[in-house]
Specification:
This protein is 37% helix and 15% strand. With 123 residues, the protein is of the alpha+beta class. It has a two-stranded antiparallel ribbon. The protein has a two-stranded antiparallel sheet with strand order 3-4. The longest helix has 18 residues.
Length: 123
């Protein structure tokens, strides 16, 4: 009975005449069992009598397809490994980023009365 109350199938039941809802329920149950077994997705056509027609079917999933494996070294530790930039060019930016991060954190904004901190001191 879960298939009858599944919100994903509400539009199918709204389309099919209520007299044929048991037939639609049976067809949807068979389709979901087949999809669970094969792992394929389909494009359906449903008529007013609850009959299902498969218009298009996806390829069977390949069990040997590529699976993502996370890299051992994070990208921020060795940017030259994950970039198209030459290693000598990329190494110049790491010290620059570290030396500029501290002054930006202590930056001050010019106001009419003088200089004020970017964020108010709430300590």
């Amino acid at each position: 009975m879960q298939i009858m109350t599944d919100p994903r199938h509400a539009r199918y039941y709204a389309f099919v005449w209520p007299l044929f809802w048991p037939w639609l329920w049976l067809n949807l149950r068979r389709l979901e069992a087949w999809q669970r077994e094969t792992g394929r997705t389909v494009l359906l056509r449903i008529d007013r009598f609850g009959n299902l027609s498969i218009d298009a079917m996806a390829d069977a999933p390949d069990p040997h397809r590529y699976r993502y494996t996370a890299p051992v070294i994070p990208a921020w530790e060795r940017p030259s490994r994950w970039s198209d930039l030459p290693a000598t060019f990329a190494t110049g930016f790491i010290p620059l980023a570290r030396c500029c991060a501290a002054p930006v954190a202590r930056a001050k904004v010019a106001t009419v009365s003088g200089f004020a901190p970017v964020a108010p001191d709430t300590s």
